[in-house]
Design a protein that fits this description.
By secondary structure, this protein is mainly α. 71% of the residues lie in helices and 3% in strands. It starts with a helix and ends with a helix.
């Protein structure tokens, strides 16, 4: 009887884990409330099925210990170091009209950050626990569903680029112009004839698809695609078309970093295919060669036409050149003509690095970077010291690079504690390389880790709802496949 109950409980928990992992990416589309709701729900469910959580922690003692160490350190740091900074920065506090309100806001922010840290690291463990209790067949079905979901997003993004709004009427972000707001009503009205030169794709600045006001479709696709490749055969023509349209959707989204990440993904895929398959280029069939050439030539022509027709999109990608120029200028310390583009990341990263130099061991405190402005007569002003030294563009909520965020806010000590999880994951991959190196799951997991931990990319706040949850979600799945032996 007891055995029968245990089997029923196992099957019930397995269905819950399967359903949760299947639909969880949809929460990123719905918004932060859905992300928090579903992530907290599965964490609570892990305590309902506590035996599964306990078994996971027992079989992964080192990983569980490192996660616990991170939780304790970052929560203590958020509440103790930040409090000390408030006392040390009384001079800055003098800028605020209502100091009590400022201190209360900081306290609420620290509590919110502490809860977010606890949720994200527990979520990292729970996702792996869920996967541990699923069969490989169920996991493959999840990846197939994610591929279908991404395909819908890709098609909707292209639709939004062409018409200026997506299939449910969500508008793209336009560069200021004299054209009407694009909508279904405008598309089928006589006004369109009066504005025959107002093609949406000429004026589009950023796309969002179903994400609404959040312009993150490119980043979401670039980070999610590597895992969906598990359900594809790279040599298959359908896979090539899928990757081509994904690349195109990311390109027209206007997200430069996402596009560079995806190009890196394609480069690694091509390199892996060439080096792992002996005589790949010589054994290639004529129809395969034609497929590759057709896709490459079509891509070059299509992307060139888009850049030539849209000065807005052209300028966004030209800023990448300007950013490289500014970085070289900072490194070499020589004077050049001022860039014509406004590049806030240089001043942001410079401010973050200086914060680190001021407190290298324990950092300046979590959320310290966002404390750069004060409110006076219901208006926000950047602190004169920061404005003079780094400029107004440096005043943001985070450094836009999670390496700089962690090392500037928690110092070398916090950085090493955080990196201990990835170091442990990489060591496990090296130790088990001979056993699992032939697994496609292992290969795509390594690809995902490379993308997640690229050092010089622009990122969101590592402890935020959207980027933080997406980061730990994908890292958790990658870590799981490095631990497991799948063919």
């Amino acid at each position: 009887m007891q055995k029968s109950n245990n089997i029923k409980k196992y099957l019930y928990s397995q269905r819950i884990y399967y359903f949760f992992l299947l639909i969880f990416p949809i929460s990123f589309i719905i918004g932060n409330f859905a992300i928090n709701f579903f992530s907290l729900l599965i964490i609570l469910m892990s305590f309902v099925f506590f035996e599964d959580l306990k078994n996971f922690c027992r079989s992964n003692k080192i990983l569980s210990f490192l996660v616990l160490l991170n939780i304790i350190f970052f929560i203590l740091h958020a509440n103790i170091i930040n409090k000390n900074n408030e006392i040390d920065n009384l001079l800055i506090l003098n800028y605020h009209e209502n100091l009590d309100e400022y201190l209360l806001d900081n306290l609420n922010l620290n509590i919110k950050t502490s809860l977010s840290i606890l949720k994200l690291f527990l979520f990292f463990i729970v996702i792996q626990m869920c996967l541990d209790n699923l069969s490989l067949k169920q996991i493959d079905k999840i990846f197939i569903f994610w591929k279908i979901l991404l395909s819908i997003l890709i098609l909707d993004t292209i639709f939004q680029y062409i018409f200026g709004f997506n299939v449910i009427g969500i508008q793209a972000e336009f560069y200021p112009n004299n054209c009407e707001n694009y909508s279904y009503e405008f598309l089928f009205s006589q006004k369109l004839q009066e504005h025959n030169n107002c093609f949406p794709f000429i004026h589009i600045w950023r796309l969002s698809s179903f994400f609404g006001d959040e312009r993150v479709i490119g980043s979401f696709l670039a980070h999610m695609v590597p895992l969906t490749l598990v359900s594809l055969k790279i040599d298959d023509f359908k896979s090539k078309i899928y990757l081509f349209f994904c690349c195109f959707a990311i390109f027209i989204s206007g997200e430069r970093m996402a596009f560079l990440i995806f190009l890196l993904t394609l480069s690694i895929l091509i390199s892996y295919t060439i080096f792992t398959k002996k005589n790949f280029l010589f054994d290639m069939k004529l129809n395969q060669l034609i497929q590759y050439l057709l896709i490459v030539i079509s891509g070059i022509i299509l992307f060139s036409l888009i850049l030539n027709s849209s000065k807005v999109l052209q300028n966004r990608f030209l800023e990448v050149k300007e950013l490289t120029f500014e970085l070289k200028k900072e490194i070499n310390k020589f004077d050049q003509n001022k860039s014509k583009f406004d590049l806030p990341y240089i001043s942001i990263w410079k401010r973050a690095s200086n914060n680190f130099n001021e407190s290298k061991i324990i950092g300046k405190g979590i959320n310290y970077f966002r404390d750069c402005s004060y409110k006076k007569q219901n208006k926000n002003y950047v602190y004169p010291e920061i404005l003079k030294k780094y400029g107004k563009n440096s005043c943001t909520t985070h450094p836009h690079n999670f390496y700089l965020q962690i090392i500037s806010e928690t110092g070398i000590f916090g950085f090493l504690i955080f990196m201990s999880i990835i170091i442990y994951t990489i060591l496990r991959a090296v130790i088990r390389f001979d056993k699992i190196s032939q697994s496609k799951y292992f290969y795509y997991s390594i690809l995902m880790i490379i993308i997640l931990f690229l050092p010089f990319k622009v990122t969101g706040n590592i402890f935020s709802t959207f980027y933080g949850t997406l980061f730990f979600f994908l890292f958790s799945i990658s870590s799981f496949f490095i631990r497991k032996e799948f063919k």
